[in-house]
Design brief:
The complex is a heterodimer. Helices cover 62% and strands 8% of the residues of chain A. Chain A has twelve helices and five strands. Chain A has one domain (65-305). In chain A, strand 3 (265-269) and strand 4 (274-278) form a beta hairpin. Chain B has one helix at 2-36, and strands at residues 44-45, 51-55, 59-66, 70-78, 85-90, 96-99, 108-113, 117-125, 137-148. In chain B, a hairpin with a 5-residue loop joins strand 5 and strand 6. The longest helix of chain B is centred in the first third of the chain and has 35 residues, at 2-36. Mean pLDDT of chain B is 86; it is low at 13-23. In chain B, strands 1, 2, 4, 7 and 9 form a five-stranded antiparallel β-sheet that branches. In chain B, strands 3-8-5-6 form a four-stranded antiparallel β-sheet, with no helix packed on it. Classes of the chains: A mainly alpha, B alpha+beta. At the A-B interface, helix 1, helix 2, strand 1, helix 3 and helix 7 of A face helix 1, strand 1, strand 2, strand 3 and strand 7 of B. Strand 4 of chain A pairs parallel with strand 7 of chain B, so a sheet runs across the interface.
Chain lengths: 306, 150
């Protein structure tokens, strides 16, 4: 009896230790790059604080699909549905990788359609995004009531944009909070690549020089390192490792584009109370480099949607 | 028999732990939605989520590209149990463009850019407690709103 009790207590102790360890891992859940910490005896508060300060959290923020779509619209691009990923493709996406990437892709297509008041496409793409989110187990991200709300407010742009923003927030917060940073980063990368794909396809090559959309595309060079840092923080996942190779290929092309900016000077706009960050920029990208970029973006995007 | 009972206890404890952890994270998301996103109005929230549990004295960094076609509002909000949350915006030469400590620890900052830039946001929960006290911890949310430049 005593022996049984001792064995039972031992098992319980091991289990409790396991739970404590599990708890440590979870509460230190990766939000960015963090230094490894080992289980150590209790330290004094000063040392604990020092350790905390070292355990820095880093967020690599890519433009959201909504922001990308708004940038394309503000650059004066015209809508063309042929560059969107057809909703019929949802049947192809049966893995977490393809669902995550295409949750980003479809959310970008949805955002793009919403900018141009493409009412039926808005419903179709919200439904497609819902299927991707459901497939990833994010059941609450896009509920049927969300789709219904969109239908009821299909002519109210403000409600549509708020709904897209909220559903995207629900998806990426669920993944971030449930320790799925690799999947969360795939969603973000899918959305960013789709925005870049649509933008590059919409450039009228006959009006390349001075094209505002081309300037918007050049600006994406500023995000490629952020994207690589995001992916590198999830290195070791085979899908992510594959994307790192792809994105390094894209970075090689972006590296051929020169961007020079003068130091930033701040100024307050007294009418709006906004701060203006003043700096001049000069960029150069030849048509050949643009075509190369367009090619590499299309190639990567096709591996996402096929 | 004993082993079965232990497995049952273990499963229950693991489930409880998972629920507690999930609840903490879900609270962070709920906090971000309830207390941070409203600060962005009248700007449109971009849909991205950046929130984490920070402890007094702890720092977080965020890197983001901001575009010349847009006007932005950044909102940095910490849970009530935390001391003041400081934030600074730096350019790629580490020049401080804005610090909320110069503005009474304001929760938001509105800005627009003449040219697109990659900027760094550094958030720090001020050290508040007395020596020997256990540092407070809580959610800190960083959210961005935008609108097309007029």
């Amino acid at each position: 009896m005593n022996r049984t009790y001792r064995i039972g207590t031992g098992i319980l102790a091991v289990m409790m230790l396991f739970i404590v360890l599990l708890s440590s891992c979870q509460s230190g859940g990766k939000k960015g790059e963090k230094k490894e910490t080992a289980v150590e005896p209790l330290k004094d508060i000063t040392q604990v604080k020092k350790d905390i300060q070292q355990a820095e959290k880093i967020f690599n923020a890519l433009p959201s699909p909504l922001e990308s779509a708004m940038l394309i619209k503000s650059a004066g691009a015209k809508f063309d549905r042929k560059f969107l990923n057809p909703v019929e493709n949802i049947k192809l996406y049966t893995t977490n990788r393809s669902r995550a990437l295409n949750l980003g892709v479809y959310t970008c297509d949805l955002s793009f359609a919403s900018m141009y008041d493409e009412t039926q496409l808005i419903i179709n793409y919200m439904t497609a995004a819902k299927k991707m989110a459901d497939g990833l187990g994010i059941m609450d991200a896009i509920q049927q009531s969300t789709v219904d709300k969109l239908e009821e407010n299909i002519n109210n742009k403000e409600v549509i944009m708020e709904t897209i923003s909220e559903t995207f927030l629900n998806s990426n917060s669920y993944l971030a909070d449930n320790d799925q940073p690799a999947v969360a980063s795939m969603v973000l990368v899918g959305g960013w690549v789709e925005g870049l794909y649509i933008a590059t396809q919409l450039v009228d090559l006959k009006e390349f020089n001075g094209n505002k959309l081309v300037s918007t595309i050049i600006d994406q060079k500023l995000s490629i390192d952020i994207l690589l840092n995001l992916l590198n923080s999830n290195k070791g996942n085979p899908s992510i490792d594959e994307m790192i190779v792809q994105m390094n290929g894209m970075k090689n092309v972006f590296d051929k584009i020169n961007i020079k900016t003068t130091p930033i000077k701040t100024e307050i706009d007294k009418t709006t109370n906004q701060t203006i960050l003043r700096s001049k920029v000069t960029t150069d990208m030849s048509l050949d480099i643009f075509k190369e970029l367009m090619g590499v973006v299309a190639q990567i995007r096709n591996t996402f949607v096929k | 028999m004993i082993a079965m009972r232990m497995i049952r206890i273990f499963s229950t404890l693991t489930l409880l732990l998972a629920l507690v952890t999930f609840n903490v994270d879900a609270q962070c998301k709920a906090f971000a939605k309830k207390d941070c996103i409203p600060e962005l109005s009248p700007y449109q929230h971009d849909g991205n989520y950046h929130a984490a549990i920070l402890v007094e004295g702890e720092e977080a960094e965020l890197y983001k590209t901001f575009y010349s076609d847009m006007e932005y509002r950044v909102a940095v909000v910490g849970e009530g149990k935390l001391p003041a949350v400081e934030f600074r915006i730096l350019d790629d030469h580490k020049n401080v463009l804005y610090s909320n400590t110069d503005h009474d620890n304001a929760k938001t900052w509105d800005f627009k850019l003449e040219s697109s830039q990659q900027l760094k946001l550094v958030v720090k929960v001020s050290p508040f407690n007395k020596p020997g006290d256990i540092p407070a911890s809580g959610c800190v949310a960083i959210m961005f709103g935008f609108k097309i430049k007029k």
